[in-house]
Every structure is written in C-alpha cells, then in structure tokens.
UniProtKB/TrEMBL annotation:
Keywords: ATP-binding, Lipid biosynthesis, Lipid metabolism, Lyase, Nucleotide-binding, Steroid biosynthesis, Steroid metabolism, Sterol biosynthesis, Sterol metabolism. InterPro entries: GHMP_kinase_C_sf, Mev_decarb, Mev_diP_decarb, MVD-like_N, Mvd1_C, Ribosomal_Su5_D2-typ_SF, Ribsml_uS5_D2-typ_fold_subgr. It comes from Racocetra fulgida. One of its GO terms (molecular function) is diphosphomevalonate decarboxylase activity. This is Diphosphomevalonate decarboxylase. Signal peptide: none annotated. Residues 203-359 form the Mvd1 C-terminal domain. GO terms for biological process: isopentenyl diphosphate biosynthetic process, mevalonate pathway; sterol biosynthetic process. Its EC number is 4.1.1.33.
Length: 359
C-alpha cells in the first residue's frame, strides 16, 4: 500500500491599488517599485491546492485546473518555490532529528509531490490568478512540511513564484516593500491593516472578458522596463509619494484619498503600458466605458464626492472599490450601461457575485 501525506489549502486573490510593474532582478523577482493591495474575500475568488507527498511517487507532477500541461522541470518559478520550501524542510528535519531522534522524522523533503491546483475564476485573464495560485502553492507546501515560518518569510518565497503572490499571504491591506538588498532578503509583504479595519470597503469585480491575456505580465513588464521613460519617472517620483499617502488613507479610512490614488495609479500603470515600445494594450472598449461610467458617477452625485474607484490589472476586467452604502446605486448603473445581463440580478442577492460585462 502507498504511504501518502496530504494537505489542502485555499488562498485569496489580491487586487493592487498601487501597481507593481517592473523587475530590477528577474531571477529573484525584485520589483522596481513598492506596491499595495487589498486582499479579497476567499469566499468568492480563490485558488485551492492539494499537495500529496509519497516515497512511491516517481516524479513531481502538477495539474492546473485538472490539466497536466506545465513542464515543471523548465518552469523556473515553480522550481524556485520547490527549492526554497524543500531547503527549509531539510533544515527543519535536521533540527527535529537532533531534538527527537533520527527515526522520529519523516524525510518529506526527499519525496516527490503530486500537486492539484484549481482556480474558481478565469485563469490568466488579469484577475490575479498567478498571485493566489503561487501563494497557495507555497502556503500549502509550508503546511505539508510543517514549517515554523512567518507569513512575511513565506512571502519572500511566494514572490519568487509570481511577484504579486507575496501579497496574497496576508488578508486585509498589504504592502510589498521593494527592499534594497541584492539578495531579496528585505523584499517582502507586510500587513498595513487587517480586513476588519475598514469593513465598509467593498470590491465589485466586473468580468469583461475571461479570455487569456495577449501579453503576459512577465513579458510585458520587462518590455516596459527596457523601453518606457515614463516608468522611470513613476519609480522615482510618483510611487514613493503615493505609497505614503495610500497608507495614510487606509489608516484614516479616507475613501476620497483612497479612491483618487487608486484611479490615478491604475491610469498611470496603463499609461506606462502605452509608453512601452511596441505598446501594450490591456484595456478594451468595455473597460474604457466602465472608466467613463465611474467618472460620471463620481462627478454628478449630489454630494460631489468620489464614491467609487476603478482599477485594472493586466487585462480588461475591472475591479470597482466602493463603500457598502453605494453598492445598490452602482449595480443600477451597471444594469443601465450594460443591459441584458442576468448576473446583475444575482448580484443583488450577493454583494460579491461576479458581474459579467458584455463585450
Ligand atoms: O505578479 P505578476 O507577475 O502576475 O504581476 C502582476 C502585475 C499587476 O497585476 C498588473 C499589478 C499588481 O501589482 O498586482
């Protein structure tokens, strides 16, 4: 009979309000600027990973959404995560051997793994699937290996799978400190505030298209680093100020400030994409219609306040941040601007229901 050790875990998606775009070290995945995100509820969007380890497995295998088509040996990011977690497990086994005796320790670090990972939302469509996916891989490995390690330390490993994954190791409001060391030992995620610090803040996800994006973030961001002059301005003069102001806005639960910076930063991220040569387009006509809809909503309401903020990652799908009292109004707006969509009805009964915009 086979001996199998198994762990399952889920990880949430995070949506950046100050975007990460550009690496200063492509192997260790060290960013050219700090970033900040909100981790969404796991009830709606998540990655779920089951990892089994066994002395009887002949090789390590990975199924993503039920399909085994990733070449693990050639995938450096996966190898980084396996290597780093195995190294820590080895150290831990040595310690346990000393403390408890050699025959009391499972040599899990020597076993091959079978990994099944699933996303309950479109993969690689600019909805941070790599963030929740790599965070989940690393977290599940740490659980399987029973690693005595903090979330911040774990975030440095997840970062080497996919940069934005480091932020999904925490709930609530999370910064990825870019760090200054060449070895990446200070480039990690930290919690700015827990989720219950600002319970009224809500995220509405508008799926405009569930097609895989044309230019991957890996390829796109390095083209931007190599060709965009606007990116240099962003790195040196814009992001450091925005990070500070955004952290203040979150601490003060100041939606005006939060919304303004969120929209400005999304705009600038897509501007550096356009400033890349050749240019990268992630937004489509529906994305731009959503921007216009939110802009109009913010400028025509009777209080003359910013009541909603859009943000877009490397794809056309929108995330709208708002506060709970505005949700019915925004849903009505979406129903008006993008009619004929059944999911809008569902939305009323569940504030986090996905809304599918018509393309
Ligand atoms: O972690 P990556 O390589 O998938 O890059 C993600 C980059 C953005 O989603 C566009 C921005 C961000 O900070 O999440």
């Amino acid at each position: 009979m086979e001996t199998i050790y198994e762990k399952t875990a889920t990880s949430p998606v995070n949506i950046a309000v100050i975007k990460y775009w550009g690496k200063r070290d492509t192997t260790l995945i060290l960013p050219t600027n700090a970033s900040l995100s909100v981790t969404l509820s796991q009830d709606h969007l998540h990655s779920k990973t089951t990892i089994r380890a066994s002395p009887d497995f002949e090789k390590t295998r990975l199924w993503l959404n039920g399909v085994e088509d990733v070449d693990i040996e050639k995938n450096k990011r996966l190898q980084n995560c396996f290597r780093e977690t195995r190294r820590l497990r080895k150290e831990y086994e040595e310690k346990l051997r000393k403390d408890k005796g050699p025959d009391k320790v499972l040599p899990l670090s020597e076993y091959n793994l079978h990994i099944c990972s699933e996303n309950n939302f479109p993969t690689a469509a600019g909805l941070a699937s790599s963030a929740s996916g790599f965070a989940c891989l690393v977290y599940t490995l740490s659980q399987l290996y029973e690693l005595p390690i903090s979330a911040a330390e774990l975030s440095k490993i997840a970062r080497q799978g996919s940069g934005s994954a480091c932020r999904s190791l925490f709930g609530g409001f999370v910064a990825w400190e870019m760090g200054s060391k060449d070895d990446g030992s200070d480039s990690q995620a930290v919690e700015i505030a827990p989720r219950d610090h600002w319970p009224e803040l809500e995220a509405l996800i508008c799926i405009v298209s569930d097609a895989k994006k044309g230019v991957s973030s890996t390829e796109g961001m390095q083209n931007t680093v190599n060709t965009s002059t606007l990116l240099q301005h962003r790195i040196e003069h814009v992001v450091p100020v925005r990070m500070k102001n955004m952290i203040d806005a979150i601490h003060e639960r100041d939606f005006q400030k939060f919304a303004e910076i969120t929209m400005q930063d999304s705009n600038q991220f897509h501007a550096v994409c356009l400033d890349t040569f050749p240019p990268i387009f992630y937004l489509n006509d529906v994305s731009r219609a959503i921007i216009r809809m939110i802009t109009e909503y913010n400028s025509t309401n009777s209080e003359k306040k910013l009541k909603a903020a859009y943000t877009f990652d490397a794809g056309p799908n929108a995330v709208i941040y708002t506060t709970s009292e505005n949700i019915p109004e925004i849903i009505n707006l979406i129903a008006k601007y993008f009619p004929g969509n059944d999911d809008v009805k569902n939305y009323f009964s569940d504030p986090f229901q996905l809304f599918v915009g018509k393309t």
